[in-house]
Amino acid sequence: MALIAPRERPQRSMQVMMKQDPGANLPMDLGLLEGTFIMPTGRRKPSIFSEPRRRWQLELHRARQRFIELRMGWSYKYLSKRKPRPKMGLRPVGPTAQALYTQMYTAFADGDITTLSNICTEGLLASFKSRIASRPRNERLRWTLHKFIRGPKFVSHRIAILPYKGSAIRQLVVRMRTRQSLARMVSGGPGRPDALVQGTGEEKEVSEYLVLQRRMWKEIEEPWMVWGTTEETDPDTVLSSSIPARVTEKSSLE
Predict the structure, then answer these.
(1) Cα 58 → chain centroid
(2) Tens digits of per-residue pLDDT, 130-152?
């Protein structure tokens, strides 16, 4: 079972939204920010020996995106006149990423809408609500995080300055590698223990890209939230045009 279904929807531009309602509070979910680049791994990454030109082009594209991210980070830091200014270091965000990842999957398995409402942006929250509501009443899920195989790896850091004074959206894409299990439990009836659905509950290795989002609104930073998960960038899309790769929300947990 895919935890987060693929989602593609057009986003209204911030300029249009501002014209329609200049005083409106922008929603948290504006989609994955343009230019987000996740370097392909494994067989999807062009070999430096058999495809050196394609590999070089991909590495050059990554370097350009990292330069843009550094420049945008500098702009974000000095967007607010309040002190202390936002800290742009990524290492302190690692424990937050792990905590939100664990809270999100645990709350989804438990059907805890309250917790999900506090840590997820609108689009992801709506997906979770729909899936929880569609579950059979006699069935529950039990999600277990056995361990983090490696620490969080930050692969993208994008920032969009909003058309409001002292406001911006900041997104981090974090690679999470874990060992986890998802068990389906069916109610056994009064006085009888729940039964494990055959073929579920097996421990497996999962690697996925968690997207964290933080908004600065009128010079005040809000807490980190979960936007969803995404996939590695398709190298063919990047190398064939300057258009950003197609993005989906998808979870590896099935």
Answers:
(1) 23
(2) 999 999 999 999 999 999 999 99
